Amino acid sequence: MGMTMTEKILARASGRAAVRPGENVWANVDTLMTHDVCGPGTIGIFKREFGANAKVWDRDKVVIIPDHYIFTADDKCHRNVDILRQFVREQELPHYYDVGTPRYRGVCHIALAQEGHCRPGEVLFGTDSHTCTAGAFNQFATGIGNTDAAFILGTGKLLVKVPPTMRFVFDGEFPSYLMAKDVILHLIGEIGVDGGTYKAMEFGGEAIQRLSMEERMTLCNMVIEGGGKNGIIEADDATFDYVRARTRKDFEPVAPDADAEHVFYKRWDARTIEPTVAKPHSPDKRAMARELGDVKLTRAYIGSCTGGKLTDFVSAAQVMRGRKVAVKTFLVPATTEISQGIRTEKLDGKTLLAIFEEAGCTVSMDASCAACLGGPADTFGRINGPEVCISTTNRNFPGRMGSKEGQVYLASPYTVAASAIRGRITDPREFLA
């Protein structure tokens, strides 16, 4: 019997010829990532269990990226970053991207890829649920808790139950007004927030292979909102071009066997997907953008690991150029590389930044997670009252972006930009047709 991509990676990582879903295997870890939210807790457990003077199993395989609560006056947040700095000094870790220095990069999931830490066929664990983003690079990547991360720091291994695989195939080509965010919201609306619980969510088909790497990252980023253990896409020339431009390390991609078993299999005609929105307060409360025209907004937000990439800002600018927003609109680049791109990338001879400023948006040049996870009251773009916000972020639970009085609608950058201009939820085809 053949294996899926996830099974092949876990078999290789555990030194086995083959694995089957449900088996528990000790997987050797290629990369462990942590950040300012969970890093201090992970470090504390590591020191308690392995000793105050213990050394991490492999300095070159640990990546630490502060990104969540950093541009704030909150002293407790600063203390978290101080703990990371002290640990990095003690362990002499080479892959630390410290805020306030030229090495700072921004949101961990995007920075991992941009800095060459995402490589096909490898195993990546991170103390953040959206670590699954790296599945776009044909990687087994998933989020873990602080205790598991501390164990990896000491041993380089983790006991993993091999997940069964769901396969989602999209034939043809997505319409030009559609983005990966629409696709994943459509899919989660179909299977529910628990439909993929502890399963690998595998994406395939011609439409997926046509997506850019940034769009593939959006797709894999939100498998966790469908309960998935990991998302994964087969590597192709786009994958290899992106990865080889960022690392000299060798890697070995995997492809699914033709006779691999799936616990769920479904095909779509890519042309049938419409601009999609998730209503408050769950990512699976699916509606079409065209159905929500009576929802008046007080705020729009474009940012996060899901929706703060350069592709996302280019798309928003295509809608906003020459127009004015009707509600407060906050834009936050995910990484410093994207922040620079906003300054230099042009449409019709104007930079994205000029287009956004002329439209009346408030743009942060500081790359970070910002208001995606709420954060301290002074966090850029945070919802601090009964706002009705349309956002490119990935979660819309009560209080996720700040105040529990807020309502968050999730949508693609196209839909968010169109809605910001109208002041109500708007199908972007009104501007892109």
Report on the structure:
By secondary structure, the chain is α/β, with parallel strands linked by helices. Helix content is 31%, strand content 18%. The chain has 15 helices and 20 strands. It has helices spanning 5-13, 39-50, 75-91, 108-114, 146-155, 180-191, 206-209, 213-221, 237-244, 304-307, 310-320, 336-344, 352-359, 413-422, 429-432, and strands at 24-28, 31-34, 62-64, 95-96, 123-126, 140-143, 157-161, 165-171, 200-204, 230-233, 264-269, 276-278, 286-288, 299-302, 328-331, 346-347, 350-351, 362-363, 388-391, 407-410. Strands 4-3-2-5-6 form a 5-stranded parallel beta sheet. Strands 18-15-14-19-20 form a 5-stranded parallel beta sheet, with helices on one face. A 4-stranded parallel beta sheet has the order 10-9-8-11. β8, α6 (180-191) and β9 form a beta-alpha-beta unit. α6 runs parallel beside α8 and α11 packs across α13 (352-359). It starts with a helix and ends with a helix.
Sheet with the most strands, sense and barrel status: 5 strands, parallel
Secondary-structure-based class equals: alpha/beta
* Helix content bin: 25-40%
Overall shape? globular
**Count of helices?**
15
Strand order of the largest sheet: 4-3-2-5-6
* Model regions low in confidence, pLDDT < 50 over at least 5 residues: none
Task: Report the average pLDDT across residues.
Answer: 98
Distance between the termini: 47 Å
Residues in β-strands, percent: 15-25%
Give descriptors for this structure.
alpha/beta; five-stranded parallel β-sheet; 15 helices; globular
